[in-house]
Amino acid sequence: FAVTLDIIEKPGTMPILYCKNENAYTEQIRFMFAETGIKFEESHVAEGDMGKKLIFKQLPMLEWEGFCLVESSAILEHIAVMADKMGVGRGNTYLGANEEERSLARSFASAANEFRRQLYEQYVNSSDQSTFTSKTLPAWLSRLNVLAVQSESSDMSLGPGVSFTFGDVAMYEMLEQIATHFGKDVFDDYRELKEYYSRCAARPRFRMYIDNRPERNAC
Predict the structure, then answer these.
(1) Phi/psi at 68 (5° precision)
(2) Is 83 buried (19+), middle (13-18) or exposed (0-12) by CB count in 10 A?
(3) Pair 84, 93: CB distance under 8 Å
(4) What integer best gives the mean pLDDT of the chain?
(5) Taking 70 as the threshold, does the pLDDT of residue 4 lie above it?
(6) What is the gyration radius of the CA atoms in the chain, in angstroms?
(7) Torsion on CA atoms 26, 105, 125, 30, rounded to nearest 10
(8) pLDDT by residue (tens digit) across 124-148?
(9) Mean pLDDT of 45-55
Protein backbone atom coordinates (compact mmCIF):
# COMPACT_ATOMS: atom_id res chain seq x y z
CA PHE A 1 0.00 0.00 0.00
CA ALA A 2 1.05 3.60 -0.42
CA VAL A 3 1.41 5.75 2.66
CA THR A 4 -1.02 8.67 2.46
CA LEU A 5 1.18 11.32 4.09
CA ASP A 6 2.50 12.48 0.72
CA ILE A 7 3.22 16.14 1.23
CA ILE A 8 6.28 16.39 -0.99
CA GLU A 9 6.47 14.94 -4.48
CA LYS A 10 9.72 15.21 -6.42
CA PRO A 11 10.68 13.87 -9.85
CA GLY A 12 12.14 10.40 -9.95
CA THR A 13 11.32 7.00 -8.57
CA MET A 14 9.31 6.83 -5.36
CA PRO A 15 11.27 5.17 -2.53
CA ILE A 16 9.99 1.75 -1.47
CA LEU A 17 10.28 0.58 2.14
CA TYR A 18 10.24 -3.22 2.43
CA CYS A 19 9.34 -4.28 5.95
CA LYS A 20 7.14 -6.35 8.21
CA ASN A 21 3.82 -4.87 9.33
CA GLU A 22 5.13 -3.94 12.76
CA ASN A 23 6.73 -1.02 14.56
CA ALA A 24 10.00 -2.51 15.83
CA TYR A 25 12.97 -0.89 14.06
CA THR A 26 10.88 0.28 11.08
CA GLU A 27 8.66 2.88 12.73
CA GLN A 28 11.50 5.40 13.04
CA ILE A 29 11.86 5.25 9.24
CA ARG A 30 8.16 5.99 8.81
CA PHE A 31 8.63 8.92 11.21
CA MET A 32 11.54 10.17 9.10
CA PHE A 33 9.48 10.11 5.92
CA ALA A 34 6.65 11.84 7.78
CA GLU A 35 8.94 14.57 9.13
CA THR A 36 10.47 15.26 5.70
CA GLY A 37 7.14 14.99 3.88
CA ILE A 38 8.64 12.69 1.25
CA LYS A 39 6.12 10.34 -0.34
CA PHE A 40 7.03 6.65 -0.21
CA GLU A 41 5.57 3.22 -0.79
CA GLU A 42 5.51 0.58 1.94
CA SER A 43 5.61 -3.09 0.96
CA HIS A 44 4.97 -5.70 3.65
CA VAL A 45 7.17 -8.74 3.13
CA ALA A 46 9.09 -11.41 5.02
CA GLU A 47 12.82 -11.92 4.70
CA GLY A 48 12.26 -15.09 2.66
CA ASP A 49 10.24 -13.23 0.04
CA MET A 50 13.12 -11.01 -1.02
CA GLY A 51 15.68 -13.53 -2.27
CA LYS A 52 19.08 -12.14 -3.24
CA LYS A 53 17.71 -8.61 -3.33
CA LEU A 54 17.76 -8.43 0.48
CA ILE A 55 21.23 -7.37 1.57
CA PHE A 56 22.45 -9.16 4.73
CA LYS A 57 19.10 -11.08 4.79
CA GLN A 58 17.32 -8.64 7.08
CA LEU A 59 14.50 -6.13 7.04
CA PRO A 60 13.72 -3.27 6.83
CA MET A 61 15.20 -2.42 3.44
CA LEU A 62 14.91 0.82 1.48
CA GLU A 63 15.03 0.89 -2.31
CA TRP A 64 15.37 4.32 -3.87
CA GLU A 65 16.29 5.05 -7.49
CA GLY A 66 17.91 1.62 -7.85
CA PHE A 67 19.89 1.91 -4.60
CA CYS A 68 19.11 -0.65 -1.87
CA LEU A 69 20.02 -0.17 1.76
CA VAL A 70 19.41 -2.01 5.04
CA GLU A 71 20.08 -1.15 8.71
CA SER A 72 17.57 1.34 10.06
CA SER A 73 20.11 3.96 11.15
CA ALA A 74 21.79 3.92 7.72
CA ILE A 75 18.37 4.23 6.07
CA LEU A 76 17.55 7.25 8.25
CA GLU A 77 20.80 8.94 7.26
CA HIS A 78 20.20 8.28 3.57
CA ILE A 79 16.71 9.79 3.78
CA ALA A 80 18.30 12.80 5.48
CA VAL A 81 20.79 13.11 2.61
CA MET A 82 17.99 13.03 0.03
CA ALA A 83 15.77 15.39 2.05
CA ASP A 84 18.54 17.97 2.35
CA LYS A 85 19.21 17.73 -1.40
CA MET A 86 15.51 18.37 -2.00
CA GLY A 87 15.54 21.29 0.42
CA VAL A 88 12.47 20.10 2.32
CA GLY A 89 13.76 20.99 5.79
CA ARG A 90 12.07 24.39 5.97
CA GLY A 91 15.32 26.01 7.12
CA ASN A 92 16.51 22.89 8.91
CA THR A 93 19.16 20.40 7.78
CA TYR A 94 18.46 16.78 8.73
CA LEU A 95 22.12 15.82 8.43
CA GLY A 96 23.13 18.52 10.87
CA ALA A 97 24.71 21.88 10.22
CA ASN A 98 28.26 20.45 10.32
CA GLU A 99 30.18 17.20 10.72
CA GLU A 100 29.95 17.36 14.51
CA GLU A 101 26.16 17.46 14.37
CA ARG A 102 26.11 14.65 11.79
CA SER A 103 28.30 12.53 14.06
CA LEU A 104 25.99 13.26 16.98
CA ALA A 105 23.02 12.24 14.84
CA ARG A 106 24.67 8.90 14.09
CA SER A 107 25.35 8.31 17.77
CA PHE A 108 21.74 9.16 18.70
CA ALA A 109 20.37 6.79 16.05
CA SER A 110 22.66 4.02 17.26
CA ALA A 111 21.77 4.64 20.92
CA ALA A 112 18.06 4.67 20.13
CA ASN A 113 18.37 1.26 18.47
CA GLU A 114 20.17 -0.14 21.51
CA PHE A 115 17.42 1.29 23.73
CA ARG A 116 14.84 -0.43 21.48
CA ARG A 117 16.67 -3.74 21.64
CA GLN A 118 16.64 -3.66 25.43
CA LEU A 119 12.96 -2.64 25.50
CA TYR A 120 11.99 -5.63 23.34
CA GLU A 121 14.30 -8.16 24.98
CA GLN A 122 13.80 -7.15 28.61
CA TYR A 123 10.19 -5.94 28.56
CA VAL A 124 8.00 -6.60 25.52
CA ASN A 125 9.15 -10.19 24.93
CA SER A 126 10.20 -11.04 28.49
CA SER A 127 8.35 -12.91 31.23
CA ASP A 128 10.36 -10.98 33.82
CA GLN A 129 10.07 -7.24 33.16
CA SER A 130 11.54 -6.11 36.48
CA THR A 131 15.08 -5.55 35.18
CA PHE A 132 13.89 -3.15 32.53
CA THR A 133 11.49 -1.20 34.73
CA SER A 134 13.75 -0.94 37.77
CA LYS A 135 17.20 -0.58 36.19
CA THR A 136 17.38 -0.26 32.40
CA LEU A 137 14.65 2.33 31.86
CA PRO A 138 15.71 4.74 34.66
CA ALA A 139 19.33 4.49 33.53
CA TRP A 140 18.44 5.41 29.95
CA LEU A 141 16.15 8.26 30.91
CA SER A 142 18.77 9.67 33.27
CA ARG A 143 21.47 9.63 30.59
CA LEU A 144 19.17 11.20 28.03
CA ASN A 145 18.16 13.87 30.50
CA VAL A 146 21.82 14.82 30.91
CA LEU A 147 21.97 15.37 27.15
CA ALA A 148 18.74 17.35 27.20
CA VAL A 149 20.20 19.65 29.87
CA GLN A 150 22.82 20.70 27.30
CA SER A 151 20.14 21.87 24.84
CA GLU A 152 19.53 25.59 24.58
CA SER A 153 15.92 26.77 24.60
CA SER A 154 16.12 27.64 20.90
CA ASP A 155 17.78 24.36 19.86
CA MET A 156 15.76 21.74 18.00
CA SER A 157 18.18 18.89 18.75
CA LEU A 158 18.95 16.79 21.80
CA GLY A 159 22.25 17.75 23.40
CA PRO A 160 24.67 20.33 22.02
CA GLY A 161 23.41 20.22 18.43
CA VAL A 162 21.13 22.86 16.94
CA SER A 163 19.50 21.19 13.91
CA PHE A 164 16.71 18.62 14.15
CA THR A 165 18.52 15.65 12.64
CA PHE A 166 17.79 12.07 11.66
CA GLY A 167 19.23 11.14 15.06
CA ASP A 168 16.53 13.21 16.75
CA VAL A 169 13.87 11.43 14.69
CA ALA A 170 15.24 8.07 15.88
CA MET A 171 15.39 9.16 19.50
CA TYR A 172 11.97 10.79 19.54
CA GLU A 173 10.33 7.71 18.03
CA MET A 174 12.01 5.59 20.71
CA LEU A 175 10.68 7.91 23.42
CA GLU A 176 7.26 7.64 21.80
CA GLN A 177 7.45 3.86 22.17
CA ILE A 178 8.36 4.30 25.84
CA ALA A 179 5.41 6.66 26.32
CA THR A 180 3.14 4.11 24.64
CA HIS A 181 4.18 1.35 27.06
CA PHE A 182 4.53 3.39 30.26
CA GLY A 183 2.50 6.58 29.74
CA LYS A 184 3.85 10.07 29.21
CA ASP A 185 4.20 10.65 32.94
CA VAL A 186 7.22 8.33 32.82
CA PHE A 187 9.16 11.50 31.89
CA ASP A 188 7.94 13.57 34.86
CA ASP A 189 11.14 13.06 36.88
CA TYR A 190 13.31 14.08 33.92
CA ARG A 191 12.33 17.71 33.32
CA GLU A 192 14.67 18.60 30.45
CA LEU A 193 14.04 15.32 28.65
CA LYS A 194 10.30 15.85 29.03
CA GLU A 195 10.66 19.29 27.45
CA TYR A 196 12.60 17.78 24.54
CA TYR A 197 9.97 15.07 24.09
CA SER A 198 7.20 17.71 24.11
CA ARG A 199 9.02 19.84 21.51
CA CYS A 200 9.34 16.83 19.23
CA ALA A 201 5.72 15.77 19.78
CA ALA A 202 4.56 19.26 18.81
CA ARG A 203 6.11 19.07 15.33
CA PRO A 204 3.12 19.25 12.94
CA ARG A 205 4.08 16.39 10.65
CA PHE A 206 4.70 14.05 13.57
CA ARG A 207 1.28 14.92 14.98
CA MET A 208 -0.33 14.32 11.60
CA TYR A 209 1.39 10.96 11.20
CA ILE A 210 0.62 9.75 14.73
CA ASP A 211 -3.04 10.77 14.42
CA ASN A 212 -3.45 8.76 11.21
CA ARG A 213 -1.14 5.77 11.50
CA PRO A 214 -2.66 2.27 11.63
CA GLU A 215 -2.21 0.00 14.64
CA ARG A 216 0.70 -2.41 14.36
CA ASN A 217 2.40 -4.99 16.54
CA ALA A 218 5.31 -3.69 18.59
CA CYS A 219 7.72 -6.24 17.17
Answers:
(1) -110, 140
(2) buried
(3) yes
(4) 90
(5) no
(6) 17
(7) -20
(8) 999 999 999 999 999 999 999 999 9
(9) 78
